[in-house]
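Ligand: heme C. Inputs:
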Amino acid sequence: MYRAAFFASLALPLFAATETPTFTRDIAPILFNNCTSCHRPGEIGPMPLTSYKEIRPWAKAIQASVQTRKMPPWHADPHYGKFANDSRLKDSDVALITAWAKAGAPEGDPKLLPALPQFAEGWQIGKPDAIYSIPEFTLSNSGYDEQMNFVVETNLKEDVWVEAIEIRPGNRKVVHHAHVWLESATPAAPKPKAASTTPRVSYTMREGTRAFARPDAPVIDDGCSHPNGGMWPGASPSELGSILASFVPGKAPEQWPTGIAKKIPAGSKLKFTIHYSKTTGKEEKDITSVGLRFAKQPPTQELRRIDLHNTAFLIPANDENHVVTACYTFQEDADVLSYLAHMHYRGKSMKFEAIYPDGRMETLIDIPKYDFEWQTKYLNATPVRIPKGTRIKLTATFDNSPNNRYNPDPSKVIRWGDNTVDEMMDGWFEFVTPKTQ
Ligand code: HEC
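Predicted complex:
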């Protein structure tokens, strides 16, 4: 009796563990749902993974990529936060893929093959209600990267609310990142100037379209030890009310939960700021576009965004682990929807911490292995309440050593600049003002 029960309880797991997983029954559902969004023709994955024939030669590489958690790409530490777009595979899926690859990657019964997911061609946000494009731009093949501005009329006759925005680079080989800003038809009334006894100093300079820190600008690595958190003396992080959308490698289009939308007033213009990299050595052409999907009805909450940054850091040559902080205190309650870390090639990690008014400290998100190619917008599974008076601390590390395979030149001292060969230290927050109950 005892013995029978013992074997009965073991029977199921033993059976499952010894049965070889097959492609059509066990593996295709995992790979089709988690990999083909990028690994299909025309997308960013280097090879399509849409059939047994395509997948079979990659079995060992697939096993390695899921075991090391290199694929699907996800760079946040699972200990902190809960994210709606968390793409990590379940441990049981990783175990199935491993067992299948070890068993020689058998195909199994072709009749069990599931259908491939349906993907929208072209625009990921669905059919846009309006599309605006820059005039064709020709990028020369010599000199520095270009930081270009283009202003495009919307010709909107009335205010619209947008619930999804997608920037589509015309030429992905050279569009390194792109932002679209809102320029309102009627310029805002000039703000009264605060009386100031100190002369205005500019800490940045320009060379062509490249802006960067003056070599003699003050150095503030520990922004949190400074009154304004690590920005240039006298500056403070301002809310980027006018930024509409951003494209950076690996980032999905802007789409917000139902009821949250961004307003575009009648007559607005759209300003595209596009950073072009001269990576191909050839003259290149680009027509980048932005697509807007309108909300069917006015939102209950307006989307807002603030970008925190340290602009005054200095990363010594060859420094493998240079720490830079930035701090900012929220002046009102906020429900935070997403975070994004933005650095360039030397960015190594970034942590976002909240120090609440009662002194409690919490890690909101930790990105221990920042990857310039994967600037994911991390969407909170539920909005995170940041009460008024909460201090946000961003801690970044930079690797300016030869061990960093992306590092263009470890012998250079690195400061803030908008070119990729310079650096940035930015943490973005999208938020809404909490509903009053
Ligand atoms: C968000 C897009 C995306 C998703 C989702 C994705 N991949 Fe990839 N994959 C890429 C890109 C881009 C590369 C090439 C650059 C790189 O290695 O980072 C790549 C490279 C690979 C490689 C090449 C070998 C290696 O490790 O460098 C393998 C194998 C791979 N992916 C397997 C998978 C599998 C299996 C899944 C699903 C479980 C998956 N990928 C999901 C974008 C993606």
